[in-house]
């Protein structure tokens, strides 16, 4: 099936640092979604992107839908301890059913 | 309100048991989904219901049987499961299942299933 390449796989940062992660694909997507998942919980939607080039913010989070419709990035500014978790990108392929997920970025904040 | 609820939160069952997972949403969404998620892996799509009809079955074994009694409810019936079926089972819903970019999915908290 189609794959999303999400990187980095994990990040070890200091509190207060900015974070950047991205997803790329060889396929074109209609929609890009970014989720955060805490252990034992379901993914929580952070940002949804629907148009190529769209740049959307949600508090300290900013995400963009790549102009080619094949990639997206998520930035987190001034990280805090509660940002710890696994971040998944997910995309809706043109004409497809369901979502294609990236493999996740595990964010760890060091004291 | 973007809440999807799932019960039970945890379930332990033997390989000969029959059990059911339940999912509910009151957002007026017409598409509902079941996903299976193993530890540190992304969710894997199992089933999609659109307007209460099964539209996608991603080659899931018959020991998993979905049911959509109405537009707000989604069940997953389990029978004769194997230990490798132990996972977090996630339900999600979206406004539509059109493939036109308006299918933002909202997830429930999941049911942690352990098969002994």
Oligomer: heterodimer
Low-confidence stretches of chain B: none
Helical stretch tally of chain A:
0
Structural class of chain B: mainly beta
Question: What is the H-and-E element order of chain A?
Answer: EEEEEEEEEEE
Determine Rg of chain A (CA atoms, Å). 13 Å
The counted number of beta strands of chain B is 11
Largest interface: A-B, 28 and 29 residues
Low-confidence stretches of chain A: none
Kindly estimate the percentage of residues of chain A that lie in beta strands according to DSSP. Answer: over 45%
What does this structure look like?
- The complex is a heterodimer of chains A (111) and B (116).
- In chain A, a hairpin with a 2-residue loop joins strand 6 (55-58) and strand 7.
- With 111 residues, chain A is mainly beta.
- The mean pLDDT of chain A is 92.
- Chain A has strands at 5-7, 10-14, 19-24, 29-37, 44-49, 55-58, 61-65, 71-76, 85-93, 100-101, 105-110.
- In chain A, the strands form two sheets. In chain A, strands 2, 4, 5, 9, 10 and 11 form a six-stranded mixed β-sheet that branches. Chain A has a five-stranded antiparallel β-sheet with strand order 1-3-8-7-6, with no helix packed on it.
- With 116 residues, chain B is mainly β.
- Chain B is 0% helix and 55% strand.
- In chain B, the strands form two sheets. In chain B, strands 2, 4, 5, 6, 9, 10 and 11 form a seven-stranded mixed β-sheet that branches.
- Chain B is built from no helices and eleven strands.
- The chains are: A mainly beta (111), B mainly beta (116).
- At the A-B interface, strand 4, strand 5 and strand 9 of A face strand 10 of B.
């Amino acid at each position: 099936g189609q794959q999303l390449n999400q990187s980095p796989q994990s990040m070890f940062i200091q509190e207060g640092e900015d974070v950047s992660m991205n997803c790329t694909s060889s396929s074109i997507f209609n929609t890009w979604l970014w989720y955060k998942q805490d252990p034992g919980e379901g993914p929580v939607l952070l940002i949804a992107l629907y148009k190529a080039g769209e740049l959307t913010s949600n508090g300290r989070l900013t995400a963009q839908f790549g102009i080619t419709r094949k990639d997206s990035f998520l930035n987190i500014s001034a990280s805090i301890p509660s940002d710890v978790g696994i971040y998944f990108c997910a995309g809706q392929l043109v004409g497809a059913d369901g979502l294609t997920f990236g493999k996740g970025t595990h964010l760890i904040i060091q004291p | 309100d973007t809440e999807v609820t799932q019960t039970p939160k945890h379930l332990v069952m033997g390989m000969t048991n029959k059990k059911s997972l339940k999912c509910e949403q009151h957002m007026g969404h017409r598409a509902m989904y079941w996903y299976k998620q193993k530890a540190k892996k992304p969710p894997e799509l199992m089933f999609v219901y659109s307007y209460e009809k099964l539209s996608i079955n991603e080659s899931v074994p018959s020991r998993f049987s979905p049911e959509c009694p109405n537009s707000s409810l989604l069940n997953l019936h389990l029978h004769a499961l194997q230990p490798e079926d132990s996972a977090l089972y996630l339900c999600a819903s979206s406004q539509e299942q059109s493939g036109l970019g308006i299918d933002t999915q909202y997830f429930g908290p999941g049911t942690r299933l352990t098969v002994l």
